[in-house]
Design goal:
Elements (H helix, E strand, L loop, with lengths): L2 E10 L4 E9 L4 E6 L5 H15 L7 H10 L7 H22 L14 E8 L5 H12 L4 E5 L13 H19 L4 E5 L6 H10 L7 E3 L7 H8 L6 E3 L6 H9 L5 E2 L8 H14 L3 E2 L7 H13 L6 E2 L22 E3 L38
Parallel strand pairs: 4-5, 4-11, 5-6, 6-7, 7-8, 8-9, 9-10
Antiparallel strand pairs: 1-2, 2-3, 4-12
Helix pairs in contact: 1-3, 2-3, 4-5, 5-6, 6-7
C-alpha cells in the first residue's frame, strides 16, 4: 500500500472554518483527519502541502515513522502550525490503516476498554438567573458533568473584556448554581485563559469551598511556573492542556502535578500517536483525560476511538448544542445517545466528508480581538 495523495481542504463550517485532511492510497482506501488550529487554516494547508511532497509513495502503515519524519524533517521543529498539520495527517493515516484491515481505529490502539464514552456539556447561559435555570435543566436531563462559561456584565461592546468585573459576577452566580443543584453534579468553569495569576486566584478565593470541581484554562500556559504560583493560592483542580501542541508541552505540567484533568487536543497535539503517549504518561500520574473537542465530526470521531482505548478517561467535550454539522457535508458522523456516545464498531473512524462541500472559495474567519476598557488588547 502506498500514499497517492494528501489533500488539505479548508471548508466553511457554518460559523467558522474547518480544515479537513484526506489521505488517499493506491488500494482505494482513504482516511480523514482534521486540524485543530482554527482561524489559521491556510497556514496549516501550506504545511500539509510541504509534507505531501515526501509522503506520496510512502507506506501509510508506517505511522510512527512518518510522524517522526514529519516532525524532524525541518531545522525548526514543532510549533502549533506544524503539529496541527501533523495531527490531521496522523489521524487520517490511522483511518486509512484501520479501513484497510476492516477494524475500528481503536483496535490499532490496543482495543476498546469501555462500551460508551461519557461526556460533559456546556452552559452558555448568561451569569444570572438564566445560568441557574439552564444547569438545573441539564442535571434533570442526566448530564453528569457540566461546564459553565465565565460571565460578563452587559455591554454594547461585545469585544470588551474586563477581568475584575467578570470574576465578581461569575463568582456570585456560580455559588448560586452550586446551591441550586447540590453536591452531586460535577461543576466546572471555563475562563479561556483570560485572567492573570492574581485575577485567577482572586476569583477562586471568592468562591466557597466545593463550588467548583475544576477550573479550565484560567491563565495562559506558556509559563508553568505561573501555574505553580496559582496552585499555591487555590486548591481548585485545573483542567488544562488544550493549548499544548506536543508531549513536551505537557512535560512540566504532568511531572510537577499541575494538571489535574488533561484537556488534550488530538487535532493539535500530534494525532493519535502523541495523544496515546500523553494518556500513558497521565495514567502513571493518576491524571484523567478530558479532551478538548470544539471542532467537527472528524475530531469527535477521533476522540471516541481515543476514549475507547485509554483507561484513564473522565469525559469528552460535547458541543452538539452549538456545533451542528449537516448530513450533506458529513453523510456519516457520530451521533450522541442522550448524554454519551456509543463506542463505534465499524471500520476506520466511522466518519465521511463530502469533498464537494469544500469546493467553494475560501472564506476568512477571524476570532474576536478582545480589548480592555482602556483600549489595550487582551487574550481571545
Amino acid at each position: 500500500m502506498k500514499i497517492t495523495d494528501v489533500k488539505a481542504l479548508p471548508v466553511w463550517g457554518g460559523w467558522r472554518n474547518l480544515c479537513i485532511v484526506k489521505v488517499e492510497t493506491d488500494t482505494g482506501h482513504h482516511g480523514w483527519g482534521e486540524s485543530g488550529l482554527v482561524g489559521r487554516e491556510l497556514a496549516v494547508q501550506g504545511a500539509v502541502l510541504h509534507f505531501r511532497e515526501f509522503l506520496i509513495g510512502r507506506d501509510p502503515r508506517r505511522i510512527g515513522a512518518l510522524w517522526q519524519e514529519m516532525y524532524r524533517s525541518q531545522y525548526f521543529e514543532g510549533g502549533r502550525v506544524l503539529t496541527a498539520a501533523i495531527s490531521a495527517i496522523d489521524v487520517a493515516l490511522h483511518d486509512v490503516v484501520a479501513r484497510s484491515l476492516d477494524v475500528p481505529v481503536y483496535q490499532l490502539l490496543g482495543g476498546a476498554q469501555r462500551a460508551y464514552v461519557p461526556c460533559f456539556t456546556t452552559s452558555h447561559a448568561p451569569m444570572g438567573p438564566e445560568v441557574v435555570e439552564d444547569v438545573i435543566g441539564m442535571v434533570a436531563r442526566g448530564w453528569p458533568a457540566i461546564r459553565c462559561a465565565y460571565g460578563e456584565p452587559e455591554s454594547e461592546d461585545d469585544r470588551l473584556f474586563e477581568p475584575r468585573e467578570s470574576i465578581a459576577l461569575t463568582a456570585e452566580w456560580m455559588t448560586k448554581v452550586r446551591e441550586a443543584v447540590g453536591n452531586g453534579p460535577v461543576l466546572g468553569l471555563e475562563y479561556h485563559h483570560r485572567l492573570s495569576v492574581a485575577e485567577a486566584a482572586s476569583f477562586c478565593q471568592k468562591l466557597p469551598r466545593g463550588v467548583l470541581d475544576f477550573i479550565e484554562e484560567p491563565i495562559r500556559d506558556e509559563t508553568p511556573a505561573a501555574y505553580q504560583s496559582l496552585r499555591s493560592m487555590t486548591d481548585v483542580p485545573f483542567a488544562i492542556g488544550e493549548e499544548f501542541s506536543s508531549k513536551w508541552a505537557f512535560l512540566p505540567y504532568v511531572e510537577q502535578g499541575i494538571v489535574n484533568l488533561a484537556r488534550v487536543d488530538i487535532c493539535n497535539v500530534g494525532g493519535f500517536t502523541e495523544a496515546m503517549k500523553v494518556a500513558g504518561w497521565c495514567e502513571a500520574h493518576y491524571v484523567d483525560m478530558m479532551p478538548h473537542n470544539p471542532l467537527g465530526p472528524i475530531s469527535t470521531a477521533a476522540n471516541l476511538h481515543f476514549a475507547a482505548a485509554v483507561p484513564n478517561y473522565a469525559w469528552l467535550e460535547e458541543r452538539t448544542s452549538d456545533l451542528i454539522f449537516d448530513d450533506e457535508m458529513f453523510p456519516t458522523q457520530p451521533k450522541i445517545e442522550g448524554v454519551r456516545y456509543p463506542v463505534p464498531t465499524g471500520p476506520g473512524l466511522g466518519v465521511e466528508f463530502n469533498e464537494e462541500a469544500a469546493g467553494g472559495p475560501f472564506r476568512f474567519w477571524e476570532a474576536p480581538h478582545l480589548h480592555r476598557r482602556d483600549g489595550s488588547y487582551t487574550n481571545h
